[in-house]
TrEMBL record:
GO terms for biological process: base-excision repair, AP site formation; DNA alkylation repair. This is DNA-3-methyladenine glycosylase II. The lineage of its organism: Bacteria, Pseudomonadati, Spirochaetota, Spirochaetia, Leptospirales. Gene3D superfamilies: 1.10.1670.40, Hypothetical protein, domain 2 (1.10.340.30). It comes from Leptospira yasudae. Residues 1-30 are annotated as: Disordered. Coiled coil: none annotated.
């Protein structure tokens, strides 16, 4: 999963499709749909064609349910993919389970135990808030799947400690939304600067520029990331 930098809510809301949830993509159709998306992107301009041809077929995949990806993303805030995975494994071991623990199980784990495995105080409190919200049904996976992108971001960002980048990871890696660019991801902005010549610090210009790649901005994001590190963490 890519790493984050800043957490400006106003930025993220401008780089996401306002349409409702994408239609479910059956596994047997996914590669066909990804090829259709990449073929469409290749025709946009020579730079994008060169980027896609240099990386090869898109391998973007979901990595869990919205709840699971939300927990993964909180653990991974400001960390590399490798370090985030280490904390995920520690949490699973602490809970005595084979996968990320349920909201109810997380609520049973003392904060001190989470701190002992290296989870910061702020992340510990955020994980507990996520668990409480799911346990009380204030947030559910089913509810998130019915919301459009902007409302998903609004709902998740209403939880203290969950910023736009964290919520965006749920959009991309759980809800499988194909028209979102994580403007808060520094590596993606650096890749835009490398390929398209737009300063990584000029978020407004990047947002405006990327509009022409709708409805496949997530797919373009995967290629921009893959060009940097082979797509590590991008499904």
């Amino acid at each position: 999963m890519p790493s984050s930098d800043s957490k400006s809510k106003s930025d993220s809301s401008q780089v996401s499709s306002s349409s409702a949830s994408a239609k479910s993509k059956r596994p047997e159709d996914r590669d066909i749909l990804l090829k259709k998306a990449t073929d469409w992107l290749r025709k946009k301009d020579p730079i994008t064609k060169r980027l896609i041809d240099g990386v090869g077929p898109c391998q973007l995949r979901t990595i869990g349910t919205p709840y699971q990806v939300l927990i993964k993303s909180v653990l991974g805030q400001q960390l590399s993919t490798k370090v985030a995975l280490t904390f995920e494994r520690r949490l699973i071991a602490l809970a005595g389970s084979k996968k990320l623990p349920s909201p109810e199980r997380i609520l049973e784990i003392p904060n001190t135990a989470l701190r002992k495995i290296g989870v910061s105080q702020a992340k510990t409190e955020t994980i507990k808030r996520v668990a409480e919200s799911y346990s009380s049904k204030e947030i559910t996976d089913a509810k998130l799947r019915k919301l459009d992108d902007s409302n998903v971001l609004d709902l998740l960002c209403s939880l203290k400690g969950v910023g736009p980048w964290t919520a965006e990871m749920v959009l991309i890696f759980a809800l499988d939304r194909w028209d979102h660019f994580s403007i808060n991801d520094l590596i993606l902005r650096k890749s835009v600067e490398k390929h398209y010549g737009i300063s990584k610090d000029n978020k407004k210009e990047i947002i405006q520029f990327l509009k022409k790649y709708s409805p496949y901005r997530t797919i373009l994001s995967w290629y921009l990331w893959a060009d940097v590190d082979g797509g590590e963490g991008w499904g």
